[in-house]
Amino acid sequence: MEKKCYAAIDIGSNAARLLIKREEEDENLVSRKLAKVLLLRVPLRLGFDVFALGKLSDDRILKIRRLMKAYRQLMKIYGVTDYRACATSAMRDAKNGQAVINKIHKDTGINIEIIDGQEEARMIYNNHVECLEDRTGNFLYVDVGGGSTELNLLVNGELVQSLSYNIGTVRTLSGAVKPEAWDTLRSDLQRLTAGFRGINIIGSGGNINKLYRMAKDKDKDAQRLPVTSLQTLCEQLKPLTPAQRMKQFGLKEDRADVIVPAAEIFLAIAKIVQAEYVHVPVIGLADGIIDALYLRDQEKRRT
Asked: pLDDT for 201-254, tens place per residue?
């Protein structure tokens, strides 16, 4: 049976990612699994246009069109058999977002879907319950992006509700987060988590992955970052300029400015639900996209 190769394109408010995974047989040749063959991240920073101007600038449009042409060629080179391309918060808010997507489709043949926050939250969670195989209890799955934050409440491993809020790192730096967004998030979490004890966070996104790697006090075996350790690291980073963060912590330019608002968002949510730690598996929207494609094909094979 032919081994399939899958791709996911995730166009976020800060960066656009191309993830490619290929089917591989396990050592006993009994079943198949997915192995990563390519992950490419390009900091387009669409949100800095959209959250300030309400639309994508001509320069930013040119860059995303060029990048999608490159992604199309890479998918051909790697023999991708199926893909899905999704755009999230910045493209949702851009007045010219659909026009840009139409032009990209004409140029490259890539069909980009603008997904809403609820679907984004579900896709991020999708098929990552395996992270909880050895854990019973209550978790809040939190993905902090450039334009929005997606939450999934899990009770004893079961998904209770998926939520999305226009609170993100680039949106914060642009001064475009409305106070009522935080009010809604707080009230929703207080209502949904009432009666549940011992809620901890599963963190997703490039910033929490980086914060985990930077933190000195952490449980490497369990991939857990104590909230107290995250607070200490945030206090170290916050007084520094992005340039100083780059120099002292070896951060890239497009990470140095957004990492503090990301830490603050995680800390604010941890405070609301009284979480003690953040579990940090390296997963994100692109993984969820490919998992969904793979599961769909598995079901077709069984039928």
From this structure: 989 888 999 999 999 999 888 889 999 999 999 999 999 999 999 999 999 999
Alpha-carbon span 284 to 290, nearest angstrom: 10
Pick from 164, 58, 161, 49: nearest CA to 117 = 164
| CA–CA gap between residue 208 and residue 205 (Å, rounded) | 6
State the Cα–Cα distance between residues 94 and 251, nearest whole angstrom: 29
Between CA 54 and CA 48 the distance in angstroms is 10
Cα distance from N-terminal residue to C-terminal residue, the chain: 15
Judged on CB neighbours under 10 Å (0-12, 13-18, 19+), 134 is exposed
Half-sphere exposure of 165 (CA within 13 A, CB side): 25
Extract the tokens encoding 32.
Answer: 């198949």
Identify whether the C-beta of residue 256 lies closer than 8 Å to the C-beta of residue 243.
yes
Distance CA 19, CA 7 (A): 6
Count of C-beta atoms within a 10 Å radius of residue 215: 16
Separation between Cα atoms, residue 10 and residue 87, nearest integer Å: 6
- Cβ atoms < 10 Å from Cβ of 153: 22
CA distance 85 to 117: 15
Name the residue type at position 35: A
- How far apart are the C-alpha atoms of 88 and 259, rounded to whole Å? 19
pLDDT in tens, 268-287: 999 999 999 999 877 778 88
Nearest-10 crossing angle of helices 117-125, 285-302: 70
Return d(Cα 227, Cα 277) in angstroms, integer: 5
